Amino acid sequence: MYIVWGSSVKHQALGPRSATCVACRQETTHVLMRNYAVRHVYWFPLFSTNASYTKACERCNLITPTGEPAPGTVRREPFLHRMGFIFPVGFLVLPMLFALVGIVFGAGAGKLASAGSEATSLVGVGGHFHTDDTDRAARSAVQALFDRLDTQRTTVTATSARIDGHTVRLLTAQYSQLRRMNDRDRLRLMSRIEEIVDASFAGDEVFLGLKGRLLWGGHAHRQAGDAWIHVVDETDPEKDAFARYHDIELAAAQAPAADVDAHP
Fold this sequence. Notes:
It is a single chain. This protein is an alpha+beta fold. The chain folds into two domains: 5-95, no CATH class; 126-257, sex pheromone staph- cam373 precursor fold (Roll). The protein has helices at residues 86-92, 94-99, 101-106, 108-123, 133-148, 183-200, 237-262, and strands at 5-21, 26-41, 44-57, 63-66, 154-163, 166-175, 205-211, 216-222, 229-230. Strands 5-6-7-8-9 form a five-stranded mixed β-sheet, sandwiched between helices. It has a four-stranded antiparallel β-sheet with strand order 1-2-3-4, with no helix packed on it. The chain is globular and about 55 Å long.
């Protein structure tokens, strides 16, 4: 019996740091990155080893090695990478899964239809997010960027919602080969997408996401007219955009009550 054992390299953004850039010759903002290997069995990720740290200048994108940050200043290195404990648990329940194969195949068509409807409701949560002509134009421009870069199997989506005079826009690009891009190329790609978004949605709040096959590999957000903020934690820009809409909706609903209290 053969056991497939190996590892893959992962990168984890830990947040901005102020440091002197050897290329810019001045103090600039750097993104601190943790680089580590994830050991896996049969392509199931298990635990992390061999952590090292680099910093990327946000001005010139120069990546240089750096020392380990002080304990408690950043998130700890993941030991069981991305719920790697599921593999041994799944191995124990494998016999039960074989017993359910017939049921799974019998209900396959129904499950696929259900999954499709759930995906549709997520994109337009509550029916508030839709795609207008401005979204379509921005989506086409970003898709054209990926085509010029010869990145195949890329899907770009753009939706928006309006409430109380405020527009929240969400643009995401899913690129199946994203994990093969290094940190510098990802930063450059995000910057080029941000330029397109700035030209398309100058007066709107925008959430921007870059996704691989399954996981988010880039996330940025800006208010109307403000600078871009790169989100370093592994959050979902779709959920953040929907949460932002509901916050505005709640504030708009409470505004009349506040006016009544202020003017009896």
